[in-house]
Amino acid sequence: MLRILKTHLTVSIREKTAMFWTLAFPLLLVTMYHFAFGGIYESDRMHGLKAAVVQDGEQQEAFAGYLDSFDEENLKVLYLQEEEAKEALKDGSVDGIFFCADEISLTVEETGISQSILQQILDSYLKSQYMAGGIAAHHPENLEKAMETMAGYESGVRQVTMGMKDLDQTQSYFYAAIAMTCMFGSFLSMYATVGVQANTSPLGARMASGCMKRWKGILASLLTGWILAFGEILILLFYIQMVLKDLDFRGAWGKILLIGVVGTFAASSLGMATGTIGKFSENTKNGILVCTSLVLSFLADLMNTGVKYFVEQRLPFFNRINPAALISDALYSVLIYEDGERYLRCLLCLAGVGAVLLCAAVLSMRRMRYDSI
Predict the structure, then answer these.
(1) Of 51-55, 188-192, 272-276, 325-329, which one has max mean pLDDT?
(2) How far is CA 1 from CA 4, 186, 191, 215, in A?
(3) Cα(232)–Cα(178) distance, rounded to whole angstroms?
(4) What is the dihedral sign for C-alpha 163, 35, 236, 21?
């Protein structure tokens, strides 16, 4: 049995076309993702704001105290002369200028997230000022209590993701690429399965006419594709983690590797099932498998993020039987949400899909008869 497995592995590794699409192409794809998306999330993330304040009016002390109440990491305030402030705004050293005259105003050079936040800061101050003025005019006895309440105001909303990790939308492409690599591992088991069938391969005809038991050929086909596919997943994960550094698997390697084991098992079973379809040629079966793998990967957000969510809204059951979507969801549950229940569900669904496909392939191969060969 070990000799048969070794032979299958050697033959599969020598398939240059299969090795390119199952190993080299995924590496090239994630490299392209790295240069296309790398740094986008960091550049869009909100960093500390910088604002210049030009003091010239009655409002300067009160407004200055209001600005100083902000954490310096979130809002850095520079008190400058008018000409210095305008020069700083022009060269981008500050995001806006607050002019503290009889009325407080904001001047910006362009529109964006930073400028919108500065405008909200100013609006919040003006609303509080208006409220305090109204209370002083109509209910002066409550002014002190109202000022204490406004001074102690804090937002009760804190925006985080589950697991306290940042959700980078570009990561979905890397998760889908990992899922696609698992799916492409089905090519290897398909080639191995075709190779042991007497009606599709001369080598299979010789093996069928010999003394090798059929179960050994079936098992060798599965293990060949499974071992090689898992090895390619290891190479891809190492490349993403250590070379590109686009994903961080630290502390989750065990769960990630288990996803690779179960995911490549499901893909290998798909390859075996495809390899046993009728008496089609190897090229025809390869074409069927390419289309199937790419469609399933597309529905797992490989080409466009949001497709998987669209399917989840319209046809959630399909995401439970799509191996690529299950692999992607399992990665999300480990690296983003830290949802053990969802992770276990994805693995069980993957194992179930793989078991069904494997049973179909085994039953199909057991029914094959070659008396006319």
Answers:
(1) 325-329
(2) 5, 22, 19, 10
(3) 10
(4) positive
pTM of this prediction?
0.66
* Cβ-based neighbour number of residue 190 at 10 Å: 29
In the structure, what pLDDT confidence band is assigned to residue 359 with cuts at 50, 70 and 90?
A: very high
Return d(Cα 39, Cα 239) in angstroms, integer.
Answer: 18
Q: Could you tell me whether strands 75-79 and 49-55 are parallel, antiparallel, or unpaired per DSSP bridges? A: parallel
Give yes or no for a contact between 150 and 69, defined as CB atoms under 8 angstroms apart.
Answer: no
C-alpha to C-alpha distance for 226 and 358, rounded to whole angstroms: 12
CA distance 348 to 288: 26
Strand partners, 107: 97
For residue 369, give Cα distances in angstroms to 198, 275, 279, 281: 9, 16, 12, 17
- Cα separation, 148 vs 143, whole angstroms: 9
pLDDT band at 59; cut points 50, 70, 90: low
How far apart (Å, rounded) are the C-alpha atoms in residues 283 and 235?
27
Per residue in 324-358, pLDDT tens?
999 999 999 998 888 889 999 999 999 999 999 99
d(CA 339, CA 215): 39
Per-residue model confidence (pLDDT) at position 260 = 95
CA triple 90-91-96, angle to 5 deg: 55
Evaluate whether 246 touches 30 at the Cβ level (below 8 Å). Answer: yes
